[in-house]
Amino acid sequence: MAASPHTLSSRLLTGWVGGCVWYLERRAMQESPHKFMHLFRNINKQWITFQHFNFLKRMYVTQLNRSLNQQVKPKPEPVTSPFLEKTSSGQAKAEVHELRPISPPSLPLSRKANEKELIELESASVIEASIDVGNATKEEKQWKEMKLHVDDLPGILARLSKIKLTALVVSTTSAGFALAPGPFDWPCFLLTLLGTGLASCAANSINQFFEVPFDSNMNRTKNRPLVRGQISPLLAVSFATCCALPGVALLTWGVNPLTGALGVFNIFLYTCCYTPLKRISIANTWVGAVVGAIPPVMGWTAATGCLDAGAFLLGGILYSWQFPHFNALSWGLREDYSRGGYCMMSVTHPALCRRVALRHCLALIGLSTAAPILDVTTWTFPVISLPINLYISYLGFRFYRDADRKSSRKLFFCSLWHLPLFLLLMLTCKQPPGGGSDKGEPQS
Amino acid sequence: MLPECRAGSPASLSRLESRDLNDRQTCTGDRKAEDYMWSRANQLFCWASPLLPCCWCQVSRFCPPRKSCYDWIGPPDKCSNLRPVHFYIPENESPLEQKLRELRQETQEWNQQFWANQNLTFRKEKEEFIHSRLKAKGLGLRAESGQKATLNAEEMADFYKEFLSKNFQKHMYYNRDWYKRNFAITYFMGKVALEKIWNKLRLKQKKTIN
């Protein structure tokens, strides 16, 4: 909005207007602020005041340093879409420029000099004022009634629950379930997915409920429903409760209590530990990695009913994956994190950030080797997953060495396809059931 | 000092339905006239005085249509990035509703002040950092192309780290207060919702009896 008057005013300053403008500017600069206020008070002279000061406004806009415009910070470089979230702006930006004929002022001004100036500048002011009218109308059009329409509710709730992240969480849970030994039980599988999905929705909603002012100040998150006022905090909490209770109940009584307990623990860890910790200490990244690791463990425990080595292996894989993924993402968000008060490794300990990312890329190679040892997969798996593991490790190394935006983006985008492919390969190499008992086929 | 919210229909405000000063839904119905400026005059005052930093301006004083019985939310503020809310005051506002509204209003102003100050300080200190680094390098503030000289992300990293640690305590206090306020607002919202449901049920009961 600050940009358009500047552009318009630069056009209008050409030709004969320029001379009158300069004259007016000199006069205006010499006036004291009180005289401006005196003019403001006179209601009947609103259009005179309006034209006059609109024009003055243009003067000051062009004369002032651009940095004094009402932009808090310059637009950052385009941020990659993390966690599969969309960052598209939903604000309507209808450009309305109304050119209305403005009648000349009928009442005399208190000061004759201003009258003269106004007559001189009337034609320029007409366009100026009407364009400014357009801008003010445009600004007023951006005000939205905080009325919840039922039609919009599904979309709003989908964004509130970070539906794409939830989908990722549910897919890692399904991978955990599918990789677990034992017969594949479809009803149990579906209940697990539904329960985990609901738990994830609840956790994400509470996270957004806590972070409204912080989300407003970050480009990545400024279009979330609570930030935009599309939903009230009460409704967000109610929705979270309505997801958490049936979700946990499904997991506890529909699947098994262990999975239910893990679900509750994960919601607690995400909402009450990770979310506040983001603003206190860099330890939040490690806590967040555990949060990401628990869903596949839940899938495994849903299928087997116990926490064995395979569950910890899967948890370990997801845990390790979080670091290259998140550390690479956070590298490009350092300015926003610093301004917003988030304690992230990329800001406070940049070298540690890159070191940890590389370390965990290499750990993925180690964990793929552990998979056949723990009888989760065959020995084919470490072999066929080696290329993608080496590639992500290579990118991790480049990020560690170069420490620039380009290498961080490459690593981040690689992590997005690496995980699904890795899990897929794991599934295809699932250890076949030994002893010829009736077991389900590997799911893919 | 500030002009009153006026009646009449200037071109840009003609879209709004009512400019009646006595109408509760307009500016003066719920606030003192001096608190409100004609939105454009407000902006003009701000722009006309180069001495005032942008964040000292009042947010655009939008007046919702008379028929609306809802709160209205505006575009993000240029200084704080927070969206201002214009709260609706119903005619039969209960004490609980009033308490909630005042709490939300006060929290909004508190948040606005914090983030406007935070963002302004960040920008100012960032500029100072850039200037000092460029000076240390022996470079001018403008590159050869005439554009403003900047430092790359790695050079800025020192500033980001320093700024974060400098404001750590401030953020701790803010976080604590924000969590308290957020919970309080949500709690009162819940109470108000229950109160409304209860009143509706009582009204229904009365109607069925009659």
UniProtKB/TrEMBL annotation, chain A:
Organism per entry: Equus asinus
Lineage: superkingdom: Eukaryota
Catalytic activity: heme b + (2E,6E)-farnesyl diphosphate + H2O = Fe(II)-heme o + diphosphate
InterPro entries documented for this protein: Protohaem_IX_farnesylTrfase, Protohaem_IX_farnesylTrfase_mt, UbiA_prenyltransferase, UbiA_prenylTrfase_CS, UbiA_sf
Keywords: Heme biosynthesis, Membrane, Mitochondrion, Transferase, Transit peptide, Transmembrane, Transmembrane helix
Cited PANTHER family: PROTOHEME IX FARNESYLTRANSFERASE, MITOCHONDRIAL
Function text: Converts protoheme IX and farnesyl diphosphate to heme O.
Listed GO CC annotations: mitochondrial membrane
Name recorded for this polypeptide: Protoheme IX farnesyltransferase, mitochondrial
HAMAP family tied to this protein: CyoE_CtaB
Pfam families hit by this protein: UbiA
Cellular localisation: Mitochondrion membrane
Main location, first listed in the record: mitochondrion
Gene3D superfamilies: UbiA prenyltransferase
Membrane topology: Multi-pass membrane protein
Enzyme Commission (EC) number: 2.5.1.-
Automatic annotation (TrEMBL), chain B:
A single BP term in Gene Ontology: intrinsic apoptotic signaling pathway
This protein's UniProt keywords: Membrane, Mitochondrion, Mitochondrion inner membrane, Transit peptide
Entry membrane topology: Peripheral membrane protein
Domain of life from the UniProt record: Eukaryota
Entry's localization field: Mitochondrion inner membrane
UniProt entry tagged with the keyword Transcription regulation: no
Primary subcellular site in the record, as a coarse category: mitochondrion
Gene Ontology terms: cellular component: mitochondrial inner membrane
A family per Pfam: COA8
PANTHER family, per the entry: APOPTOGENIC PROTEIN 1, MITOCHONDRIAL, CYTOCHROME C OXIDASE ASSEMBLY FACTOR 8
UniProt-recorded name of the protein: Cytochrome c oxidase assembly factor 8
Gene responsible for this protein: COA8
